[in-house]
Fold:
Amino acid sequence: MAAPQALGFFTDTTICIGCKACEVACKNWNQLPATNGGVTKMSGDSYDNTERLDGIHWRHVKFIEQFDGPYNGRWLMMSDVCKHCVQAACLEVCPTGAIIRTEYDTVVIQSDVCNGCRACIAACPFGVIEVNPAAGTAQKCTLCYDRMQVGLEPACAKACPTDSIQFGPIEELRARAQKRRAQLQAQGETRAQLYGDDPNGPLGGLNSFYLLVDEPEVYGLPRNPQLPSKHLATSGTLSAASAVVLGLLALVGLRKRRMDEQAPAGPGPAAN
Amino acid sequence: MSDTFFSAAPDWTWFIIPYFFVGGLAGGAYFLAAALEWFGRPEDRPVIRTGYYVAAAGAIASGLLLTIDLGRPLRFWHMLFQSENFPGLMFKAWSPISFGAWAILLFGLLATVSALGALAEEDRLHSAPLRAVGGVMRGRGLAKLVAAGGGLLGFFVAGYTGVLLTVTNRPIWADSPWLGALFLASGASTGAAALILLAPGRGATEQSLRWLTSFDNKALVVELLLLVAFVASLWSIRGVWLSFWGFLLLVGVVGFGILAPLRMHGTPARAAKLVLLGGFLLRVATIMASEGIEHYRVAGGM
Structure:
């Protein structure tokens, strides 16, 4: 059997209607609790009451409300999910080896290996991962690894009524996304842009990428996401330099003490 | 806006903050004890022994705090061994949390062995196996060798916690490369402060204490310079300090933890207590300032 090709999501935010069917399908298939410990919480400032991606929300539809007065505005809807980065920050820092890259080029956390140290949460530039309180381990979208193994598409893509979430081989999705961007731009939506489709871009490209009609920050996406290790050499070098300075200060102090004691002639406690 | 503002807080709070403080203090104390083991004099032995005790107790407390903080504490060993391929070792040199788990383990082992040697020196070991280990450690050659390894690991443990924070994508932590150096200097100053407070009870001489106080003052100056560099490096996101944590950093850490002890020449014990307070508040302020930034609210413009 030929090696499986890289699979992923292309999310066309322009046709998302904010129905949250993807959130429900994800919770249903992955048996995630509807609420956190039985607590039903309203956001109070948005029609979006699930608010964020976390350990029990592996899909989240963002409602971005851009209103300038009561009659002039628009809603931007975006079904957000793990980006399955080609160079994954979470995988890089995970100290237990719980986070793996699968044969489909997706990124999966093995819940039976994770010990809940939460390094991956701080490392992810997109704020995707959180602890599932029922498991005590970090959890996120698996891109329905179990469904993929039997040839099914992920539950969210299957449930999406407008095909805003499209699943398939990354190369095919990229071609489709570029065609759609060109179509929108030809129709006058000049802000249409792809986010995460470039294999030479940040993190080697994202295996879950997006079509946006505003700047990435508006959707809560970092413009230039980075691997956490980019800071390692500088920070480590400065720490080592600080250790050298402090070590020298300690030794110079000891030498000075010895010299001070030897300086005055006359009886005194014998130096060793 | 920095790209770090779109990440999520890891909830490293009330077990990790004490760990960062105690680990730094233990590492600093061991380093000073090791320096005296190599280049000190016989009358420094009480300080050396105190340093080993503080380091051993601190390393054990650090391990416990780290384990309790895990979502699944019984799986703490997954950081050291491959859980699906035991006894294959689990080690990632580029992941500070992986490197740090091993460093804490090895530092704890060396600090415990050194502490056993110190207990043997004070003739306080009653169990035969422990007396045997302690007796071996009384040999100065071996004690110096262990002290060299433990001293380096001690400084590593004091500094890697800051590097660990920098090797993330969180606001403040990943926006400055200075946290590792700053925590290391704080580990040195708090380690010295702990010895200034505890060593007199073990018979430390005036000369040893004078050297410790002198070193602590120098470490505080280094810490202050590094703190200035740290805050200056965050200029582009300076608004993050307009919070209680910024106030705490300025008043608690700089005012009470660094400047006040530097001006207290005649009362080293009181100054040392303030240094310990400042070292703890440094961890509280730098960690909580970032933990309080909620990505989804930043992103959603809420």
In short: Residues 5 and 224 of chain B are 27 Å apart (CA to CA).
